Amino acid sequence: MYPVGEFETARLWLRQPVEADIPSRVEIPRDAEENRMYGGDGTPKTFSPEEVRQRLTALTSQNSEVSRSWVLAAKIWPDGLAVSQPKGRYIGQITIFAIDPDHRNARLRMGIYDRRFWSQGYGREAVRRILQHAFDDLHLHRMALRVAAYNLRAIRSYESCGFVVEGRERESLWMDEHWWDDVIMGVLDSEFQQNGPV
């Protein structure tokens, strides 16, 4: 196993969990759209402090050879005001998983659970920083992900980070009495480098 590391961008810390993340996660307003964007049925979820503690504790014992996860902690609110938590306010998580060192590829997933931070560039900042880590430090060649076809906000964000649509898994999601495709996206290290520095 290797150290997972912590990273910083202009508005985010990508780090391991701290105690203050528990109330921040519990306090995130629940809404149906947030649940749907991550494949749920649209029923807003609530979490108890103990449930959040268990989920975040799992990050501290991850096998970094095959998977690496970070808390996304905002340093500032979208309006530019500083958050009150010294290590940033928990807004979501990002993970590199299915790491294959022989073929130098892996998969990515990210969730920003607090909609107050949607469409503000926080996701793009996080993805670009993790891609830099994946390609420069882990020496991966390719990163892939899948996203529900109805999640246009996420697709645009991933495209802005250099991901391209590589295909679809047709009608793989049942949502709102309708079948939806999963969109398969990928980015190569050379494409990411052409996209400019983080």
From TrEMBL:
Residues 26-190 form the N-acetyltransferase domain. It comes from Sulfobacillus harzensis. Gene3D superfamilies: 3.40.630.30. It comes from the Bacteria. InterPro entries: Acyl_CoA_acyltransferase (IPR016181), GNAT_dom (IPR000182). Pfam families: Acetyltransf_3. PANTHER family: GNAT-FAMILY ACETYLTRANSFERASE (PTHR43415:SF3), SPERMIDINE N(1)-ACETYLTRANSFERASE (PTHR43415). This is GNAT family N-acetyltransferase. GO terms for molecular function: acyltransferase activity, transferring groups other than amino-acyl groups. Keywords: Transferase. Transmembrane segments: none annotated.
